[in-house]
Automatic annotation (TrEMBL):
Family assignment from sequence similarity: Belongs to the TRAFAC class OBG-HflX-like GTPase superfamily. OBG GTPase family.
Ligand binding (Mg(2+)): S176, T196
UniProt keyword Cytoplasm present: yes
Biological process terms in GO annotation: ribosome biogenesis
Protein name, per record: GTPase Obg
């Protein structure tokens, strides 16, 4: 999928159908001059549903159809016949989609399972026919209920990428390169910051035909929690990942400091992110000789405490099997 086709934020106007009118018909038949009331009920208006689809990865299909309307209910007829229900409309979305009220920003619901469906706008109830209003004192009611109007709602539909492993790092840390090497994904790679502007997903093949999903997400910078750089655009995609893989280049001046800046941005955005399992990968480690690597290890053992780390190189294919093993163990511990 090209980067331009990845859409993770759309505004939608949804309107459910109006309920049909009840009928005020009076029964008429040969030899029955004054039959009683036999008006049927109106049909209900169509609902607008949001439905999860595991085969979708983006909201691109909603980009050009932002006005969604369900069908109106049919009117009641004679012989107590009920009007047809209005046609329901389904908005299919990827798993991990959040639906928010446009004005208030309040989350209405989220979709996390395949075929899960929730009503976004409920169709209006159909009106009752005059059959329901007959009584001993009013045997020929000539009135019926109108149908109730449907609902209208403006919402924001937002995708938070669902992946097993989320890559966290500064721009140019080598996230896209790693994803391109250990998965079949083909993200855009270049030697400048913010090459990645949209999340990329890749399936990492593992032993015995098993696999897990990794997400390369736009790079973080200091102040991202306040919306600097790609800010919240990046951070909301991290919320749905089981493991955070911090990618820090080996040529960084201070590995511990860079890790702490990344942690701080996550903490300021959502402290719950720090409860996830973490692993640090020192990327571009093919630039290090054994002596320098040993020196960095000794320093990191002192500074990082219990945080697990390893050295990798995507270009030289170093440490990638060990990385997969560590990630698999964390996912299945």
């Amino acid at each position: 999928m090209t980067e331009g086709n990845f859409v993770d934020y759309v505004k939608i106007y949804a309107a459910s159908g109006n309920g049909g009118k009840g009928s005020a018909h009076l029964h008429r038949e040969k030899y029955i001059a004054k039959g009683g009331p036999d008006g049927g009920d109106g049909g209900r208006g169509g609902h607008v549903y949001v439905r999860g689809d595991k085969n979708l990865w983006t909201l691109h299909h909603l980009k050009f159809g932002k006005h969604i309307k369900a069908g109106h209910g049919g009117d009641g007829g004679s012989s107590r016949s009920t009007g047809a229900d209005g046609e329901d409309v389904y908005i299919d979305v990827p798993l991990g989609t959040v639906v928010k009220h446009k004005e208030t920003g309040v989350v209405i619901f989220e979709i996390t399972e395949d075929s899960e469906q929730k009503i976004l706008a409920e169709g209006g109830k159909g009106g009752l026919g005059n059959w329901h209003f007959r009584s001993s004192t009013n045997q020929t009611p000539r009135y019926a209920q109108p149908g109730l109007p449907g609902e209208e709602i403006d919402v924001i539909i937002e995708l938070k990428v669902l992946a097993d492993v989320g890559l966290v790092g500064f721009p140019n840390a080598g996230k896209s390169t790693l994803l391109s090497v250990i998965t079949a994904a083909k993200p855009k790679i270049a030697n400048y910051p913010f090459t990645t502007l949209k999340p990329n997903l890749g399936i990492v093949p593992y032993r015995d035909f098993r696999s897990f999903v990794m997400a390369d997400i736009p790079g973080i910078i200091e102040g991202a929690a306040e919306g600097k750089g790609l800010g919240h655009y990046f951070l909301r995609h991290i919320e749905r990942n089981s493991i955070l893989l911090f990618l820090i280049p080996a040529d960084t001046d201070d590995i511990k400091k860079e890790y702490e800046i990344l942690l701080d941005e996550l903490r300021r955005y959502n402290p719950e992110l720090l409860d996830k399992d973490q692993l640090i990968a020192i990327s571009k480690s093919d630039m290090l000789d054994e002596e320098l690597k040993t020196e960095i290890k000794q320093q990191l053992d002192k500074e990082l405490g219990n945080v697990d780390y390893l050295f990798i190189s995507s270009v030289a294919q170093l440490g990638l099997t060990e990385l997969k093993d560590r990630l698999w163990d964390l996912l299945n511990k």
